[in-house]
Amino acid sequence: MAQKIISIPMKTICIYEKIVDIIYARALNRPNFAVLYAQLCAFLINDAAFNKLHNSKTTFQKVLARKSFDVFTSQYTPQTEVHKLKEKFKNSNMTPSNFKNSLNTFYFQYYNRSLTHCNFIGELYKQGAFTEKIILACIEELMRVKDDLKIYCLCIILQVAGPKISKTHNLDSIVNHILLFNIENSALIEMSPTLKSLIFKIQNLHLKDWINEESVKLIEDNKNHVSFEKLPEKLKKPYEFKSYTVMAQCIIDECIVVLNNFDKKKSFNEIVHMLNNINSWIQYDQVSFVVSMILITLNENQSIRYKAGILLDKFVTEGLLLSDSVLLGIDKVMDDSEMKIELPRLPDLLFDITSRLKYLDINST
């Protein structure tokens, strides 16, 4: 295959880009062959006649690096796809259960592809297709924001490229970045067991001067774990946590829109009409809707809390909310121990809302 590519009679930037696209697509779709595709790239780059265009500063290596960085920077911004799923839910009859399943599948595939890409980047450097400057730029980009995926990607790159890059570059700050994330977040987020073990492995590799004797771990070792549904329950939790976070934000976003419209003097009938024209969360999880409506007002001025109370009261009188759901939502906020610490005046803030609930037995709260 390499000889066929080299023998192409006419080389242009467009030809380079098409070759890179083909190699990239195959490398990401066939992660078990990442080493072979990285070796192919290194072979093409080391062929001086093929690598450089005549009368141009463009090289095959530069085109490959640009493609890699473009995929690299776009790969770690899932907001666009998540937004599409949120809009699909809002504008369809999709149930929360199906929405959660879609999010779970998306996050699983997204993580898999991101980690596969980082493994390929590491191999491109290891096999000589990428320079130290390129791999360090990728590492620097990953260190800009701390989250579990970026830490996972850093671990994958270091596991592959660490033994080579450590010969010319001090990796202390990068490893410390990973270990600090582990210390700060192990009790705060649902971290994948695979990520925990991989962080421990990176720590050991660093202590042992990067002598790597094990194969690279991507999502899981079990070859049968090819989809979210086939994962063991304990391995599903990190993805489900992200899905639930998105769903919670959806409810908050809806409450913000509703309250803003009410604040802008739109009639209650207009708000009901708006909710009837979307797949509103109020019909699926009334308690969470009430909790979200309360939470978005706690740091606002008193008039906003009054309006939230009036709005909740109208929802009850018009039959959109059950009075029990409102009371349960209030109790849920009141019983939140962290909220009590964060907002010492929580009872007073809640009273601003509950004082407007004419048709509820507030004394029962």
UniProtKB/TrEMBL annotation:
GO terms for molecular function: mRNA binding; translation initiation factor activity. The keyword Protein biosynthesis applies. It comes from the Eukaryota. Pfam families: MIF4G. InterPro entries: ARM-type_fold, MIF4G-like_typ-3. Keywords: Initiation factor, Protein biosynthesis. One of its GO terms (cellular component) is eukaryotic translation initiation factor 4F complex. Transmembrane segments: none annotated. The keyword Protein biosynthesis applies. Residues 3-170 form the MIF4G domain. Belongs to the eukaryotic initiation factor 4G family. PANTHER family: EUKARYOTIC TRANSLATION INITIATION FACTOR 4 GAMMA (PTHR23253), EUKARYOTIC TRANSLATION INITIATION FACTOR 4 GAMMA 2 (PTHR23253:SF9). This is Eukaryotic translation initiation factor 4 gamma 3-like.
